[in-house]
Design a protein that fits this description.
18 strands; Jelly Rolls; 2 domains; five-stranded antiparallel sheet; 1 helix; Immunoglobulin-like; about 270 residues
């Protein structure tokens, strides 16, 4: 009987030790901190793990094990998406995301009304609309010129379209728009000045009288036109539209490379 009691005592002690060692299961995920959106200037520095931490209620500080996915380029303007993952020893997982916005330092743009009109800052500030109605192009800056490699065009004139947005035009002022342009083979482009709208009618034309359609040749030439700003609007755009532009009843050579040089207005 005594031996039996001793056996039961040892079994009870073992069960107690196992309960203490195991405890409650770990179901709490680590806490990720410091994963917030960041904006830097082109050419700046960015460490994706700087200021980011992961603290677990059981494992403690596990910041060194944080995994980051996504790519970014501090030398190219754009918005980059990064995903952060932290996982503790029990397999509990936390995720968080952030955007890295790489922008041009406004101090580099000067006081030109068309910012980066000479493409000295590469593709910065400019944007494009492609693929909405079938017009597609690739945009690169080469030797101080913006190359528009057109691979398809929309049925209308407007796409693919190059844009410089957010230009503050003043009512009552006369503006002269000038730009240098050529193409690998002669073709026409349509140049617009106005405000892009998020809904119908989608565009407010600042010069509604005469469309500006110019014939490009294989020689770089300067094109100029003027208009008087009659509207109260401070959010204008200069738009180069390279879709099915008909000039002198010709729509050949539309799949082509177009080159833009100095663009500005006085």
């Amino acid at each position: 009987m005594k031996k039996l009691l001793v056996a039961f005592s040892i079994l009870a002690a073992s069960i107690t030790l196992m309960a203490c060692a195991g405890g409650e299961p770990d179901t709490t995920a680590p806490v990720l901190s410091g994963v917030e959106d960041v904006t830097i200037f082109v050419g700046g520095t960015f460490d994706p793990l700087a200021g980011v931490s992961a603290i677990d209620d059981v494992d403690g500080d596990i910041s060194a094990d944080i995994r980051v996915s996504g790519t970014f380029n501090v030398d190219a303007q754009g918005t980059y998406f990064l995903r952060y993952v932290s996982e503790d020893a029990a397999g509990n997982r936390s995720e968080s995301t952030r955007y890295l916005n790489v922008i041009i330092d406004p101090a580099l743009l000067g006081d030109a009304l068309v910012p980066n009109g000479d493409f000295s800052l590469g593709w910065a500030v400019w944007s494009a609309t492609t693929g909405v109605e079938g017009g597609n192009a690739a945009y690169t800056v080469e030797n101080g010129q913006l190359k528009v490699a057109i691979s398809s065009v929309a049925g209308g004139m407007w796409e693919p379209r190059l844009e410089n947005n957010g230009i503050p035009f003043e009512q009552g002022q006369i503006y002269q728009i000038s730009f240098d342009a050529k193409a690998d083979a002669p073709r026409a482009i349509h140049v617009q000045v106005g405000e892009l709208l998020p809904a119908a009618p989608y565009f407010t034309n600042f010069k509604p009288t005469t469309p500006v359609i110019v014939d490009l040749t294989t020689e770089m030439k300067t094109f100029t036109f003027s208009f008087r700003m009659e509207l109260e609007d401070s959010n204008g755009s200069v738009l180069f539209e390279m879709g099915t532009v008909n000039q002198h009843r010709r729509t050949d050579n539309l799949i082509n490379n177009v080159y833009l040089g100095q663009c500005g207005h006085d």
